Amino acid sequence: MALPRTYDSQNCSIARSLEVVGDRWTLLVIRSALEGVRRFDDYQDALGVARNILADRLTRLCDEGVLRRVPYQERPVRYEYRLTRKGLELWPAMMVLLLWGDRHYAPDGPPLIVGHRGCAGSLTPALTCSSCGAALGPGEVESRPGPGGRS
């Protein structure tokens, strides 16, 4: 069975999120933005991506409100791309993906060590309960219909 071209019909926030960030170049653009890259040529240098693909991904991320275009030069007008609050909210997901990749796809060890600037401790991803603060695993979570659900 062929994969659908979009996930609009699925009642799933993961599928809807994939519509925005679900391809390789988009995640790498977001990674670069989180690392402080802002200008088109700097993205291209960092990623080695074709100009047309990069332009498409930057436009889509701006259209989705993940990035915003800010002029930095008047003549000719040139823009830089800055993360919005929505874009910054992807940071935890990107860090979890990085740590997962380090654990499973870095046989010689992590290519980059990410740690707490204040004490040099390593990062440990955890999902916690908003009521009691307990760190939760998959077996301790239940799903129930939410207000945006449909049958």
Automatic annotation (TrEMBL):
HTH hxlR-type domain boundaries: 12-109
InterPro entries: HTH_HxlR, WH-like_DNA-bd_sf, WH_DNA-bd_sf
Gene3D superfamilies linked: Winged helix-like DNA-binding domain superfamily/Winged helix DNA-binding domain (1.10.10.10)
Transcription regulation among keywords: yes
Any one GO MF annotation of this record: DNA binding
Keyword DNA-binding: yes
Keywords: DNA-binding, Transcription, Transcription regulation
Protein's name according to its UniProt entry: Putative HTH-type transcriptional regulator
